[in-house]
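thread: overnight batch results

M.L. [08:02]
morning all. the overnight job finished for the chain we discussed friday. pasting input first so we're all looking at the same thing
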Amino acid sequence: MTKTFKVLTILGSPHHRKSNTRAMVEDFVDEVAAAGLPLEHEVIPLGRKQVDPCRGCWNCTREKRCPQAGDCLEEIKVAMLECDLLIMACPVYENQVPAQMKALFDRLFTWCHIFPLLGKYSLSACTTGNDGYKEVGGYLEKILATYGTSSFGTIHSIGGFTPGFFPWRKVARTKNAKLARRVAETMLAGKPLRVNAWQRRMFKVMKRKMTGMHAINTLRFGPLERQPAPNRLRVRVMSHFIRRIGLTDDELDKWGKFMPFELGWWRDRGWLDTRSFTDLSRRPVPEGFDTRQRLLRTEKKVAA
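M.L. [08:03]
and the structure it wrote out:
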């Protein structure tokens, strides 16, 4: 039986049917389908969804109740977990993403540390009147890298002046047709994409963060069973730093308990001793590790 691939577009526009970005993405997806990929395409228009701004309480890092629970974030997370190709798409607003898109990224704060969508394909897309597409495309690519996806890159177009007025639409479709064929061929063959610069960079950033937190936890609370010992040099440097600035026991306790959700993810996935993003992506999910349950359980606790 032929598989039908799920393509999900998160549309970060305040508009819906009149969105020029949506028009460009729908044209692109039509070209992917025409190239032979059986697919179903879902568009989640953030301009028609309620995603409340993050309050910065950090409850999600401690698996506690989110004060904004009850909006549309849960259904968006489910759709992201179920898709095969994730497209992050938005117009350029003041050389950045619109508020609707930024609110979603802020609420998915913990996802930026744990590569939750590892193994999925992705694409970023943006439209603009004249400028800003490089900044927005780069930002979207960075977010997709922190989520662990393998991106085909960014499609963009100028000439998207006002909602529903997109005279460059046909030009954009023609320009993006070659990439659409590559997307179809790659996904049909199940080929992995090459690790890109953003993935390498974000791996180094998160590996440094999580191994540092692991070292502090080990210093403060002792080694954990079945967990790798922290790097000895890192421990010596941190011990010297702690003595030099005179951290109190209470301050060390707070540091040791910093971002327990993310550190627990890295520990339980066996990622603390990985050497590269490729190494991390090749490690199988350990038996008993329920990815979906972990990513959605904070919202489930709220509903309980």
